[in-house]
Design goal:
With about 375 residues, the protein is of the alpha/beta class. The chain is about 30% helix and about 15% strand. It is built from 9 helices and 12 strands. The strands form 3 sheets. An 8-stranded mixed beta sheet has the order 1-4-6-5-9-10-11-12, with helices on both faces. Helix 8 links the parallel strand 11 and strand 12.
Length: about 375
Amino acid sequence: MTGDDRFGCNRHVTLPGPLRLDGGVLLSPVEFAYETYGNLAADGGNAILVCHALTGDQHVASTHPRTGKPGWWTRMIGPGKPIDPARDFVICANVLGSCMGSSGPASVNPATGRPWGMAFPVITIRDMVRAQAMLLDHLGVGRLKAIVGGSMGGMQALSWTATFPERIDAAVIIASTARHTAQNIAFHEVGRQAIMADPNWQSGDYYGGEPPAAGLAVARMAAHITYLSEAGLTEKFGRRLQAREAKSFGFDADFQVESYLRHQGLSFVDRFDANSYLYITRAMDYFDLAEEHGGLLANAFRASRARFCLVSFDTDWLYPTSESRSIVQALNAAGAPVSFVELSSPYGHDAFLLDAPEMNRVVDGFLRGGR
């Protein structure tokens, strides 16, 4: 199957399945919303799968239909960039459990004709990967030139190399981890409890009524703090007041950083589903690649013949460089070829989404090195 010469061809397909999930449920049918860029080569050797993070979606390099903003990784994908649709057939799919067109709690349960809500089965990162493999089979993509992802996208990339080692030639993992720590899980639980404490949540059965916007906004605010660095927050906001000369001695947004976080929370609820947030954060918390392979991370990579590139950022305290080094050590133990670099950035975990010329140079060099 070929792609489309238009930049960012938005697609949707429903496949019959069934998809066997780690929790033992058979999911059928399975919906996919995805975008493709470029065309699949005759020999099928130019396909690159880009995996998105927790609150990302398939609109990786084209205008988002809800927000009107550019795609979330236009710095990485486009003409003359490390991933170039003139050369590569690029695929980005909305993950299983999300809310931008793929099967998730907001999609319709065919058995009831109503949104799944909390009846949707709990999923894992590996379930997301198996679903993506089902989509690639549908597209006629048997093997990937590369799989690329940051944050939760990096988790998917790691899981791909362990679950379908014969299908991956190269993997780029940026600002990611092979398992969630207790601290990671703790921050997610705060967000989930904020959503479930919102009276509008209604045990997940809020579709057709008022969504739990206040709870979801708080969840986003708490998570957003983990994506930034202390130095970055200080540089951007410090203790500066928001549009006032003196403190209000009340609970309005006195400080610029308060106003910024409130804006992040409110804008998020316009484009994301609260139940999807519950499901995807749970999938991330369950992720432990070593646990899936006998407790030894190196075992996850022993069947892989892929080249690996890992990138971390020195101010990322959500998935610090030590997490990437642990993956590198496991890859070394498995005899896998791997390159690794820690880049300097004031932007914390979010650095992989922002202007990072050094990251682009690293990824471009790595992908070209396989030709």
